[in-house]
Structure to design on (262 residues):
């Protein structure tokens, strides 16, 4: 069943040294993602979400375990996925358009062809007219949009997005969330999305993996059966609101070690 376990994380463990002792950051992490799914990883700050992404991206070795994409191990093999880090990491000396097409030009696509492919998306993202600007001339929201486009335009089937909208105001954030889901559906990518925002996870995802506090383990897996296209108002539907309450309760307990008390 390669499509049901298109991306597969098996028994992944990773520790970091602290004062000469191994402190586990993630432990026994196992899950499968079907091809084309949008899966969010939700967990308390410091529970190992970015560590997990760095391992899937082949940038960090797991102490134990394996990660496969379409049956092939990607452990210690960078370059198999598109990866957007929390910080936008645009190259300051390149124009916005040359940042957006970086992945294609590195693969040898002609600049003119890459720009032709990117232009409709640049317009949809509201970046038209800013193609020739340098990143420091743009607002934080615009830079995030450019970084998102760069990631979406990589030729990779699997995209890892690590809290891409964390630093944005609510309306810009919603705009980018809706744009991302539209483009994801059109491009049929497999997306893993890290967030600590329960509403964001519910609005975007087919499935949500809730992680424990450090060391991160999969605490619970949720199926989000909401029709698409989705609207924020749907989060008030009783089954979704109940799912949110359950996640908040479990997250609170992970962080504080006891139930919510007032
Ligand atoms: P999250 O992304 O969920 O906030 P991280 O994966 O960044 O969490 O970090 C998980 C834990 O591992 C944290 O306690 C963090 O301090 C530690 N950690 C992450 N990277 C390193 C590193 N390179 N060296 C030492 N400790 C690290
Ligand atoms: Mg992180």
């Amino acid at each position: 069943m390669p499509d049901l376990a298109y991306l597969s994380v098996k028994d992944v463990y990773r520790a970091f040294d602290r004062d000469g002792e191994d402190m586990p950051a993630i432990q026994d992490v196992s899950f499968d993602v079907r091809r084309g799914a949008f899966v969010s990883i939700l967990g308390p700050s410091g529970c190992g979400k970015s560590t997990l992404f760095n391992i899937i991206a082949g940038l960090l070795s797991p102490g134990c375990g394996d990660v496969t994409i379409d049956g092939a191990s990607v452990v210690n093999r960078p370059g198999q996925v598109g990866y957007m880090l929390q910080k936008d990491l645009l190259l300051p000396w390149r124009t916005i358009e040359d940042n957006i097409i970086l992945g294609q030009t590195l693969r040898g696509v002609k600049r003119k062809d890459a720009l032709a492919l990117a232009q409709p998306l640049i317009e949809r993202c509201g970046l038209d007219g800013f193609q020739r600007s340098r990143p420091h001339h743009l607002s934080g929201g615009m830079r995030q949009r450019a970084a998102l486009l760069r990631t979406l335009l990589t030729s990779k089937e699997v995209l890892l997005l690590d809290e891409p909208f964390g630093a944005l105001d609510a309306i810009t954030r919603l705009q980018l969330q809706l744009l991302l889901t539209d483009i994801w559906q059109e491009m049929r990518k497999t997306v893993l999305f890290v967030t600590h925002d329960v509403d964001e996870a519910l609005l975007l995802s087919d499935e949500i993996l809730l992680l424990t506090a450090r060391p991160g383990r999969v605490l619970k897996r949720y199926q989000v059966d909401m029709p698409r296209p989705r609207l924020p108002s749907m989060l008030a539907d009783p089954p979704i609101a109940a799912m949110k309450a359950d996640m908040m309760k479990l997250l609170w307990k992970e962080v504080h070690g006891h139930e919510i008390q007032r």
Remarks:
- Residues 49-50, 162 surround magnesium ion (ligand 2) (CB under 6 Å).
- The chain has a mean pLDDT of 93.
- The first strand starts at residue 7 and ends at 18.
- The CA atoms of residues 122 and 179 lie 12 Å apart.
